[in-house]
């Protein structure tokens, strides 16, 4: 515990298994005879509140700028054509200084220095760090117009013959239009992060906390703030209510709608011992759950963090925009000065007829207007928005489809993928294998056999191990018991199996390679059983006790619905598919043939899977790896894009670039298609942003002026620049209308629900 007297801040560490924020609040409020009140700080909504505040600030700034700019505009552009008002505005005060000029100066000054101060601050910060940005261009452009106007007004006040022409409306209208553009931009950008808001809204605001006696009977119910849930709390979930946090069911049966987290539409049956996810909806029965992961540890919080970090991560293509912007601003300043100087010099040297100059200007003012217009219209804002806005929307759309993409780099790599390496178990297959046959090669009691096997396998996360343990329960007197004999010296041999000492017996459970590596002989009968098992697309697991092969387990894992159709569809997308699995050749070939994959690598160790990925990359392929287990992690990391099936292990999910929350293979197609659509949008954004500058700069510089006398006033250039930025953001927002390929709907691929 530590206390900071300057900030009046107390920091403490605690064990979440024993206590939590709710207990702290109770202690604080019970101290001092109730004089103190405490509440949890609202971390939820702070992100949205910050954006709302930013939107509000730009809106207020724009409205205040209009209060001053509209009168300036009217005096400069409208009232000059109304005889009575024109006469009043042109009334001279001192020498050639008029009332209209004084009023425009007074009204434009707050716009320039108070309302527009954010641009000065931004320019100062950029220049202090040795760079130049949009704020630098705006500050230079508006200052040029404003201070020239001040010079013109002061000269008119001190000269009996100088007729002033000011640009106060230019600086004021320029700032107003840019503020309008920024307001529309932040408004549109806010919509790009709606996916995060929707995820955060899934967390229930309140929860029903239960107090139980030693026999598990309910003593009391209390409604608490959902943020005050602590680990090991017992919570009641009524029908129609959201599950308050991650945990497991200790009482009751129901069905839970997990579509908002996994995208799986069908309710999932839940009973005692089953895990539930916070934010999902209980549909019928009452459940009592025990909290296991709360706050930042919950699945929902982790998904929000992943999406948030993904939206902040830059795509490699963004580096191009950053490099362009870095040199573009100094180039724009040079072009702006060159434009002014060229037109000014041409005017002084009679390079064009005097009749070209508008009656309200001289050659210097005409040149200045061209220079300011170039500076403003060439601002690279749209270029800087082209990639991040598309990435934000793309990752948000992916999250809503159950495809969590970890940032711009993953998006960019995925759209180039032309080769996918599939694991078999849990990827092409359902991942819920079951033991369908047991062959004992030695005379022993089945119950004893499975006691030893399950004790060795219970510590493994592999789906086959879980299937064996589940099957072993059938041979116990108490099927509900989860206690097995103690396994000493447990060792998980990745890609092969497990090894342990149970009841003083050395137990090995795994594939044929495991037995060969430990010099355990395999009889001809055992070879025949293995061949028969593999011919049925089943996996043969061998068991040895004290260096002797005693049994073979046949495990079946059915194909996922639509697996064949997905592989066929990938071929139509010009994506080649390969199976690389640790399973035996017979089973691997049978599965590959069934789904339509020609290339198979079987009995591969984790490092061999990674080597195969690197081999494909060396051949010029952009490789994606799809897997779900610990033994897939090296290959997931080695691949250009790693896709983890969401139902897989935490290690696989951590190693992957993309997490498929559902167990549907069709989401592999969704991930590739979405990334391609996103990068098509990024290209379109760049084309628009660069095309806008390529066309806009010559027009602003006066390229059309000699032929058709067309010139672009700075305030219109500012409006065009703002419109360009807003249009890029809106272009990215169109990705929110993304629909999966129509063929996926007609294939009738269904999700996997395990009950």
Automatic annotation (TrEMBL):
| Signal peptide residue numbers | none
Q: Name one GO cellular component term.
A: membrane
Please give the coiled-coil regions recorded for this protein: none
Q: Name one Pfam family in it.
A: E1-E2_ATPase
Listed under GO biological process in this entry are: copper ion transport
* SUPFAM superfamilies, sorted: Calcium ATPase, transduction domain A, Calcium ATPase, transmembrane domain M, HAD-like
InterPro entries according to UniProt: ATPase_P-typ_cyto_dom_N, ATPase_P-typ_P_site, ATPase_P-typ_TM_dom_sf, ATPase_P-typ_transduc_dom_A_sf, ATPase_P-type_domA, HAD-like_sf, HAD_sf, P-typ_ATPase_IB
Aminoacyl-tRNA synthetase recorded as keyword: no
**Which keywords does this chain's UniProt record carry?**
ATP-binding, Copper, Copper transport, Ion transport, Membrane, Metal-binding, Nucleotide-binding, Repeat, Translocase, Transmembrane, Transmembrane helix, Transport
What PROSITE patterns has UniProt attached to this entry? ATPASE_E1_E2 (PS00154)
GO MF annotation: an example:
metal ion binding
Q: List, for all copies, the residue spans of the domain called P-type ATPase A.
A: 202-308
CDD domains assigned to the protein according to its UniProt record, in alphabetical order: P-type_ATPase_Cu-like
Q: Where are the transmembrane segments?
A: 61-82, 102-120, 132-151, 171-188, 327-346, 366-386, 686-708, 714-735
Instruction: Enumerate the subcellular locations listed in this protein's record, separating them with semicolons.
Output: Membrane
PANTHER family given in the database record: P-TYPE CATION-TRANSPORTING ATPASE (PTHR46594)
Protein family according to the UniProt entry: Belongs to the cation transport ATPase (P-type) (TC 3.A.3) family. Type IB subfamily.
Report what the protein is called: Copper-transporting ATPase HMA5
